[in-house]
Amino acid sequence: MLSEFKEFVSKGNVVDLAVGVIIGAAFGKIVTALVEGVVMPAISILTGGVDFKDWKHVITPAVMDPATGKEMVAEVAIKYGDFIQTCIDFLLIALVIFLFLKAYNRMRQPAAAADAPPSEDVLLLREIRDSLKK
């Protein structure tokens, strides 16, 4: 069983997948920082300085103790601002990955083979065709 596990782990696909997951997690943190530090403040300016994470619909407000001022019952709210921010994070990550893969695939494509001379098989077939026409 140990030898089978070694064979499984030594395959390139498993290692590539592990590296991809680690890089993807780090990349997600970078995009999240970009969204929270750059994109959301710009949206906050457009919305009059309201913090995007504070957007919510309160169903039941919090109940405060009048004597101590402490919260006795927490509020029940739908926090749609966090959801929208997470969706923006996802869309930005997907866009950047799409652009990266598009550039990567463009680099991997071989140069157009139209300029290459025809192979010997093609030349031989052309000679046969030409001789049959005579």
Question: What are the main properties of this structure?
Answer:
single chain; mainly alpha; Non-ribosomal Peptide Synthetase Peptidyl Carrier Protein, Chain A; two-stranded antiparallel ribbon; elongated
Describe this structure in words.
This protein has one domain: Large-conductance mechanosensitive channel, MscL, domain 1 (Non-ribosomal Peptide Synthetase Peptidyl Carrier Protein, Chain A, Orthogonal Bundle). The model has no long low-confidence stretch (mean pLDDT 82). The termini are far apart. The strands form two sheets. A two-stranded antiparallel sheet has the order 1-4. Strands 2-3 form a two-stranded antiparallel ribbon. It has four helices and four strands, in the order ααββββαα. Helices cover 65% and strands 9% of the residues. By secondary structure, it is mainly α.
Number of strands: 4
Helical percentage: 55-70%
Query: What is the CATH superfamily label?
Result: Large-conductance mechanosensitive channel, MscL, domain 1
In spatial order, strands of the major sheet run 1-4
Tell me the fraction of residues in β-strands, as a range: 5-15%
Cα radius of gyration in angstroms: 30 Å
CATH class: Mainly Alpha
Flag low-confidence runs: none
Give the averaged pLDDT, no decimals: 82
CATH architecture title: Orthogonal Bundle
H/E topology pattern: HHEEEEHH
Query: What is the name of the CATH topology?
Result: Non-ribosomal Peptide Synthetase Peptidyl Carrier Protein, Chain A
- Going by helix content, strand content and strand pairing, the class is mainly alpha
From the spread of the alpha carbons, the general shape counts as: elongated
The major sheet is characterized as:
2 strands, antiparallel
**Total helical elements:** 4
End-to-end Cα distance: 70 Å
User: What is the domain total for the residues?
Assistant: 1
